[in-house]
Amino acid sequence: MDSKSPPIALPSLGLSLLPVAALIGLLAADVVAFGEDSSYGANQIAMLLAAMVAGGIGMARGTQWKAISDAMAQSVSQTTEAILILLMIGALSGTWLIAGIIPAFIHYGLQILEPEIFLFAACIICGVLSLATGSSWGTVGTVGVALVGIGSALGLSEGWVAGAIISGAYFGDKMSPLSDTTNIAAAVGGTDLFSHIRYMTYTTVPSLVVALVVFLIAGFGGSAAVDGLSASFADDFGAAVFSAFEIHWGLFIAPIVVIFLIAKKVPAAAALMIGTLLGALTAVIFQPEVVRSVAGMTNEVGYGMAAFKATIQSMALDSSVTTSNGMANDLLESSGMAGMLNTVWLILCAMVFGAAMQATGMLERITRAILSGVQSTFGLVSRTVGTCLAFNILASDQYLAIVVPGNMLKDAYSDRDLAPENLSRTLEDSGTVTSVLIPWNTCGVAQSGILGVATWAYLPYCIFNWVSPLMTLTIAALGFRIKKKESA
């Protein structure tokens, strides 16, 4: 029996928008009921329920369930590499934590903190940390919180300080191979991770430069009377880290090797696996006390067993290092692969919703409406930017603002003979970075709550987040670095 549905007419635009409306309504209810925790289960249920609405309408119009389920299976299968990479990211973050690599990044990054250029330095520090960890939320929730306090003591506007922190954090998150949104955008766009990151540099680096220039100009005038405060902060943090780890430049061997592998275009999963194993080896060689602490084993137990338990635990499960500094303790913890499972869950549910919309013809009908009148590459890119912004505003979740527009517009880019990197870059330039600017988006809710600064207060000063979508539009308008598909 043929599993494909017989050809049927596309549904009307109004009917096609019903599942989207149901999704938006459910997501809005999730934000009200669960706040920043809505992405930890509630939004996944919302996507599955919306997929049921789409599937039900499609079946009522004659689409066979087998065709819908086959589309779901195919859609989910396309995420296999992305899921593997996400799991490896969790493992790498765990071994790099107990190896002292991530703490070393933080310590050396804080050394550039100077009150006279505080906003500039805060953006760089958060960018480095987020690039190293792949987490904008983790960066904002740890170093970001401390920087807000220091900025207030320097007499700087909390809106400016929060804007500098968020700009740096989202730059690092966007460009880090450890970031879930970076991996999702590459997977949805249909390109490999490192090609996606390399192609983003043409819009992301100029956007960061603009932001840094603005922060440098705005940051002049900080009070020199509080120089000791920032120095004390960095010293206290460094002392706490040095009390727990052996910090030296040798810890950067693993990151250097990973960067070299990336430059040599080694597949992402393989490069991350090698980085994970090097992190484990670094921990075993240089951090024996940390290894024993994480393993929960005393000196009476053989070091080999402690090393095995600590490295496996750091790769798969929770691991943490305790110091005398509370903020350092918040940074020095990882959830390993287990910490990535919620993101995997979210990806799977989003792909199921997208597949249901595609199999029933609803995605194609909405896409036709969005692309109506598009005559140029700039028009296509601008519609992509607008769609991502709309989903961030209406769906209240950055993952949906990447996954749904990406699935809707992928064929349009291919039909215009554009390489998939054009789509994946635009998804990040407009979907990832603008989520934090929406007060009711999960990112806006989370960052506002973490920093204690209202979204409306920091919104004008997130320079990088504003410039990024404008930069991608400018690049498209100029026709600069618009890559064509390679011939088969």
Structural commentary:
With 488 residues, the protein is an all-alpha fold. The protein folds into two domains: 13-75 and 342-478, no CATH class; 81-339, no CATH class. It contains 24 helices and two strands. The protein has helices spanning 13-34, 42-60, 65-77, 80-98, 101-110, 118-133, 136-153, 158-175, 180-189, 193-219, 227-244, 253-263, 268-286, 288-295, 303-316, 326-331, 341-359, 362-371, 377-394, 398-415, 420-432, 442-451, 455-458, 463-478; strands at residues 319-320, 333-334. The chain has a two-stranded antiparallel sheet. Helix 2 runs parallel beside helix 17. It is globular. The protein starts with 12 loop residues before the first helix and ends in a 10-residue tail after the last helix. Residues 1-5 and 222-229 have low confidence and may be disordered.
Descriptive tags:
single chain, 488 residues, mainly alpha, 2 domains, two-stranded antiparallel sheet, 24 helices, 2 strands, 73% helix
Largest sheet: 2 strands, antiparallel
| Largest sheet strand order | 1-2
Structural class: mainly alpha
Strand content: under 5%
Distance between the termini: 33 Å
Helix content: over 70%
Mean pLDDT: 80
Low-confidence blocks of residues: 1-5, 222-229
Number of strands: 2
Number of helices: 24
Overall domain count:
2
Radius of gyration: 23 Å
- The secondary-structure element order is HHHHHHHHHHHHHHHEHEHHHHHHHH
- From the spread of the alpha carbons, the general shape counts as globular
SSE topology:
Layout (H helix, E strand, L loop, with lengths): L12 H22 L7 H19 L4 H13 L2 H19 L2 H10 L7 H16 L2 H18 L4 H18 L4 H10 L3 H27 L7 H18 L8 H11 L4 H19 L1 H8 L7 H14 L2 E2 L5 H6 L1 E2 L6 H19 L2 H10 L5 H18 L3 H18 L4 H13 L9 H10 L3 H4 L4 H16 L10
Antiparallel strand pairs: 1-2
Helix pairs in contact: 1-2, 1-18, 2-17, 3-17, 4-9, 4-13, 4-15, 5-6, 5-11, 6-7, 6-8, 6-10, 7-8, 7-22, 8-10, 9-10, 9-20, 9-21, 10-21, 10-24, 12-13, 14-15, 17-20, 18-20, 19-20, 19-21, 19-24, 20-21, 21-24
